[in-house]
């Protein structure tokens, strides 16, 4: 028993360091080295040999290249390069100028923020920086609170990326899913099924639309900014064409590869047999080349394009480091037998009736304290999968979805999250005020999601669950806006020297 418990030490170190130091790469690195030390019987030279072999196996193993891993790494590098090309090449600003001249009132301005977040779906961090920055003139023109801009930006960045397999999140998450034993479907199908059950991400996006349409939840500025600076007419194509080529070619390459492999006319068979890694790689190559060509035709020097690409590769290197460490710690945990041990305990001690809600809450706490959804995915997706298989194999996909949803919730309202900070600073408000004003809406979505996962655990039909989740979220939103309105009126009366009417 003692020996069995000892294999948990590397995982425990990883979790403790991630929660206390909030440095995912360091935490994963310590877990990898300590686990390798145990597997090598505490021999330093054997430990180094094991680490070298394990790292090498991530790209070449069993006499063949690990094509999936290589395709994912290539796609992530290209997405990082494309992000910087579009940001530094002026494509985002040009699209914002084009959008600015087509907005006529405050409602359209708020919906414009949401719409731009949907267009710039490529990456959560890129979305936060780009959308917040380019929508600041809208806040000046229509007296929108900076906190409202930041909320709309943040709510349509990471939550949206967690639903789209063709964003930078897709290859990362699917690479982790590919290593989960007993996954009943392909990584792409698993991702899509998880997205359909991601109550938090979908509810957050729905609430942001409700806020944008109604204008409720935030108090408007008392004084309108005077005469905002004039802007150029702008160009929608510089951003629109690369994004459209990424989305459409991703779908096209995926379906084509599946059709060729399956030899069937059934689209489900196409998705099952599709080469997701190769399709994402090819789509990213096409979209990146499209960006380079458009920017070069627009007059950007070739030398500057090279610098933009190198800057993008440098920016994505941290995420690539996390992914490689994720693969390595997964191999270490597998060799130690940690997942099987935890799954065995879970099968004996956990109730299947609270598996999904508990998973959601656990991952939310972890992501909130670390400020990293990707770090939470790296640690909890493999473990959550093993536990779900041991407790109730039919709940495997819902449990993985609960990991995704909980991680996005925790990251969404964490004051140390990079997306929270960037959403605030790019929108012109302080991170503290953004987190405080966003928190009530995040909690509403989380409560509705918690109810949704508990009902799913009780095998309630999907339509009924979504109906209850939607009604709960809308009811809580109306209650929040009612209370906000009451407090706002009371504050105005007190400012005017009046007395509050009870």
What does this structure look like?
With 502 residues, the chain is an all-alpha fold. It has two domains: 2-65, no CATH class; 102-230 and 339-502, no CATH class. The chain has helices at residues 2-6, 9-21, 24-39, 44-57, 67-88, 91-100, 106-119, 124-134, 136-141, 146-155, 158-161, 169-177, 187-196, 199-214, 237-262, 267-273, 276-297, 302-336, 338-349, 355-370, 373-391, 396-412, 418-427, 431-457, 462-495; strands at residues 60-61, 64-65. α5 runs parallel beside α17 (276-297), α10 crosses α23 (418-427) and α20 (355-370) packs parallel to α22. The radius of gyration is 24 Å and the shape is globular. It starts with a helix and ends in a 7-residue tail after the last helix. Residues 222-227, 487-495 and 498-502 have low confidence and may be disordered.
